[in-house]
Amino acid sequence: MQTTFSVEHIRKDFPILQRRVRNDRPLVYLDNAATTQKPVQVINAISDFYTNHNSNIHRAVYALAEEATEAFEEVRDKVARFIGIKDRQEIVFVRGTTEAINLVAYAWGRQNIASGDIIMTTEYEHHSNIVPWQLLAKERGARLEYIGMDDQGTLILDHLDRYLQTGRVKLVTVSHMSNVLGTITDVDTIIKKCKNAGVRVLIDGAQSVPHMKVNVQELGCDFFAFSAHKMLGPTGVGVLWAKKELLEAMAPFHGGGDMIREVHKYETTWNDLPYKFEAGTPNIADVIGFSAAIDYLEKIGMDFVRKHEIELTKYALEKLSSIKGLKIYGTPDLSRRGGVISFNFADIHPHDLATIIDEDGVAIRSGHHCAQVLMERLDVAATSRASFYIYNTKDEIDVLVSSLNRAARVFKL
Amino acid sequence: MSGNADIYHEMIVEYSRHPSNYGKIENPDISYHDSNPLCGDSIDIFMKVQDNKVTDIKFQGRGCAICMSCTSVLTELVKGKAIDDVKKIQKDEILGELGLQNLQAVRIKCALLSLKVLKYGLYTYLAGKLKDANADALKAEASALY
Fold first, then answer.
1. Residue-wise over A355-379: b if at least 16 C-beta within 10 A, else e?
2. What CA dihedral angle connects A82, A88, A93 and A97, to 10 degrees?
3. Which of A136, A329, B27, B77 gives the lowest tally of CB atoms within 10 Å of its CB?
4. Cβ pairs bridging A and B (under 8 Å)
């Protein structure tokens, strides 16, 4: 009862959840793995920045610039605290997880990956954790290899062991939670194995940090990336965390203002961390908006977030598995699964399904979810995907289920 | 104004399960492939040409009901037609045939992928036949039709 009350309370903070769509149906937003909605606190923080404090940061001496710089830099401390990092200099603001991974591939990869080396990822990665490594591998004459998964979407870590034995693996880069299957990766074991072998590890936390408590320092990986917009924050803000000694040794990614110490005609020296990796004017207003998002999540607590999502996922899995002809992907083990459910419904193409249930105000995702390697592994062209967050309710899952039943009638199943 | 769900009428559902002219032609005069990067729909069209007429046409591919039914209708329209008439086929003809005039913008690419493949294939073929070095201009023309 307490939980229901809290979610009702939470929903009031999200203006968009009052919206009606299509045939005047209440919006049922179930595409949270793509991006989450924003509470009024985040919207107001951005608006307040532009209304009252807007200026560029780090150089000017006037009042506005001081306020803006202070507000911006406070977010760095907040982010560090939120993911359990002690040293604020290790927090680099980027545009999103994609940019964070590209930064590592470019700046660390070019210095550390040589011909014949192996980079390992998994079969359930987002394109953002495959393509940058393909580009790097091609450029350096290295190889990209995959840790396979079983039919329930759990990684087969024997594959990793076998490759580690070759002594050629330089980096293992895995998502903390699959954006399609919801599988929570056993990163502890992966990091332990890699540490023993002296191999660097990058964790893509785009789907984990928004949904569960993550302590990056305790994880013991080398690089960690995530995005603000999947955790109530604005688009265009992401975080790269990396160990200081790695950031120090890495060459810059982008050149420009803010990342320099001294620029001469033919030579430049770099600014201190993290500014060496933050060329150009950053996304100041949205970083400040992100701060409000972290406040919001801290207020309700990440344990509540995880507990609520487990409850919703359990309910949804029960309801969906009772629909004849509906195939659900991923593990039934809720302790190893986040609030993401991918499925296919008989021979209805996911795009047709999404269009039909959109008529009932239900927003789910259809397609390859930027995970075509996984689609190939599952031998499907596409899937439908429902993904949950703090403001979703069991009633909304009921709407999804009745809408799916309507689709079955349209397609005469 | 018809709702979006109304687009899934009997004919579309039927075509999605039993598309017309589905399959492959051995040694086709024209063969062309394209896909929609956003949704993964993928279409191959094969044609036989004789005396400036499309004597046979088949397609293969994976796609949603909209894509499969529009491709079916397109192949039915094209079969037996003179090339000059095929060149004149416009999107409204296909959409009209299936009552999809009001198809929402995000789904229009599903409906028109096959028309794009057909026109690209045809223009590439014509460019080769005319030994016209300017195949790109012809493709641009095809693209504009799409």
1. bbbbbbbbbbbbbbbbbbbbbebbe
2. -50
3. B27
4. 55
**Inter-chain residue contact B64 with A412, CB threshold 8 Å:** no
* Radius of gyration of chain A from its Cα atoms, rounded to whole angstroms: 22
- Read off the pLDDT band of A218 (50, 70, 90): very high
Sequence-ordered list of residues with C-beta below 8 angstroms from that of A322, at least 6 positions apart, any chain: none
The pLDDT confidence band at residue B5, using thresholds 50, 70 and 90, is low
CATH number of the domain to which B83 belongs: 3.90.1010.10
* Pairwise CB contact (< 8 Å): A356 & B40: no
ipTM of the complex: 0.83
B66, A359: Cβ pair inside 8 Å?
A: no
Average pLDDT over residues A236-246: 98
Helices B65-78 and B108-129 cross at an angle (nearest 10°) of 40
Average pLDDT, stretch A136-153?
A: 97
Where would I find the H helices in A93-228?
97-103, 109-112, 131-140, 157-165, 187-197, 216-219
**Is the pLDDT assigned to residue A175 strictly greater than 90?**
yes
- Taking the complete model, does pTM exceed 0.90, yes or no? yes
H/E stretch holding B59:
strand B53-62
Residues 17-76 of B with CB under 8 A from A: 17, 38-42, 62-66
Residues facing residue B48 across a β-bridge: B56
Mean local confidence (pLDDT), A131-137:
98
**Interface mutation target, options B8, B13, B60, B66, chain A, most CBs of A under 10 Å:** B8
Range of the domain at B133: 4-145
Taken in order of first residue, the domains within chain A and their CATH numbers are 2-30+301-410 (3.90.1150.10), 44-298 (3.40.640.10)
DSSP 8-class letter at A106: I
**Contact between residue A80 and residue A211 where contact means Cβ atoms under 8 Å apart:** no
Residue A386 has, within 13 A of its CA and on its CB side, a CA count of: 33
